[in-house]
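Sample intake — 3-phosphoglycerate dehydrogenase
Collected from: Acidiluteibacter ferrifornacis
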Amino acid sequence: MKILANDGIAPSGKKLLEDNGYTVITETVPQDQLADAINNENYEVVLVRSATTVRKEVIDNCPNLKMIGRGGVGMDNIDVAYAESKGIYVFNTPAASSQSVAELVMAHLFGAVRFLDASNRAMPTEGAENFKGLKKAYAKGIELRGKTIGIIGFGRIGQAVASYALGCGMKVMASAPGLETTNVSIVIEGHGTVSVAIAPSTMEEVLKNSDFISMHTPALAKPIIGKAQFDLMKSGAILVNAARGGVVDENALIEALDNGKLAHACLDVFENEPKPRVDLLQHNKISLSPHIGAATVEAQDRIGTELAELIMAKKAELV
C-alpha cells in the first residue's frame, strides 16, 4: 500500500509504516496537482495536516483512494462526510497534540502579561542606551495566579488548557454547546492526579467575567467572537486564539485593541494563512506565532505513530 504524506509525517510514524511493508512518500505535491499524483502513483492513502485540502473534486477524481488521514485535530480541510459516503476511511489524531497546544497557549499568556513580546523587540535596539526607560515601561505586568480564564470550546485541548491554568492557581470558566460538568485532571508527576470539576457557563458569562479568554473551537462558517462579543468582555481582557483562523473577526479584534477594550491578543492562527494580514502582524498589542500549536517534537511523534497505527488497523480490517 502506497501512502502520500503530503504535509509530512514524523520519522517515528514513517519508520513504523515502512517496517510493516508500506511505501511512504513525503515529497509535497502542489494542491492543483494532488489528484493527478494520487492516480499516477497509485496512492491509496493520503495524509495531510493543515496545508493540504482534500475536497470533493479530489475525491471524485481518485477512485482508488481508500483512506484520508489528518495529523491533528481539525478536519475542516477535508470533505469528511462526502469522503465517507464514497466508502473512504477518514481519520485524525485528536488527542495527540492537546498538550502541545495547551502549552503554547500558556506560553503566550505568560509572555503577554509580562510584555515579553514587546521587550524582546525593544531590548536589542534600545537596551544598551535606554535600559531604565524600558524597565519602567515594562514594569507593570500582572500575574496569572488568582485571575479567571474563560475557555470557549471544551474538548481535549480546552481541558488541557484548563489543567495548566488550574495548576497556575487560576479560576477556570468554560463554555461549549451541550457542555456538562467536566472533571479536569491535574497530573503532578510523582504525586498522583488531582481532579477538579468545571461547571459549564454560558458564553455571555464567560465573556463578562474572564480576564483571559482562550479559543478552542472548530472552524465555523462565521466568527464566534465579533464586535458584540468584544463589547461584553472586561476592559483590559486578553484574548488567545490557537484554534482556527476565522473564529475571531479580525477587523473587530483590531478595533477592540485600538480602542482599549482589549489589552492584548495572542494569535497562532489567522484567516488568510499562509499570508496573514500585515496590520495584524505589525500591531503592537498582538503577540504572534505561525500556527505552531501542535509543532513540538513530542506531539509530532505521537501524531505520526497514531496515524501509522490507524492505517495498519484499518488495513487489517480490509484484508
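Post-analysis note: The chain has two domains: 2-94+297-318, 98-288.
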